[in-house]
């Protein structure tokens, strides 16, 4: 075999249903092999990434996941249990974790990062025992996750988020949330509550402009707007992560928060509906090792993306 001597074996799991999951992987595998990594394909028909990670934990040195944020979300707990470093091929629609980590959008360039950049620790969020990388939300964002079909994401990409949001926006109504954090309890009327571990989420939104996925903190915000059209006015700030400066947005940092509602409401974690309120959210420090560039000083959207 030409190139670097193979010293590591990597379980390579690709979500074929992801927006770019049909990518021909031969060039990617070539990059990995030249970097000293031998990719191990799962058995045909095996698609459960959690089961695959556990099954290969003793024979592989790392896990490479190809897909979007939903794929990564599904593997988060297994990665922590197996204690295997993670490499990411951004093949999904939004690839918010890849953006938060400053990873290149091109799969070949992402493979180069996996092969050449050491893994570094990042945090995870945990809500009711469900792990997440980017954000946990209730309200508008959770409703949007139910509205945004896989077909819509595949056909329209990130534009699909805007289409689904427009359909949902005028139906949204404020609801009551009881927020327990840092020894206080607050009662608010809100359209959306979000608790972010990373910086980016939702196909172009930013939890907080200076957030990082390894700072040991959760960034909370609540959109306490009187009318749905106010969300349109807040959209530029939501994209930049500066919404916490608005008078009708409550924002703070914490390491643990409990959210209660009058009736159970679904919780969206990284685009997947995984649990219901009451929601106990906490940060798990340095829970996963990920091959990614060293963290840079926050400057908004990573420059590696257009």
UniProtKB/TrEMBL annotation:
EC nos: 2.7.1.-
UniProt-recorded Gene Ontology molecular function terms: kinase activity
Cross-referenced PROSITE patterns: DAGK
Boundaries of every DAGKc domain copy: 5-131
UniProt keywords, alphabetically: ATP-binding, Kinase, Lipid biosynthesis, Lipid metabolism, Magnesium, Metal-binding, Nucleotide-binding, Phospholipid biosynthesis, Phospholipid metabolism, Transferase
Cofactor: Mg(2+)
InterPro entries associated with the record: ATP-NAD_kinase_N (IPR017438), Diacylglycerol/lipid_kinase (IPR005218), Diacylglycerol_kinase_cat_dom (IPR001206), Lipid_Phosphate_FormReg (IPR050187), NAD/diacylglycerol_kinase_sf (IPR016064), YegS/DAGK_C (IPR045540)
Enzyme class name: transferase
Protein name: Lipid kinase
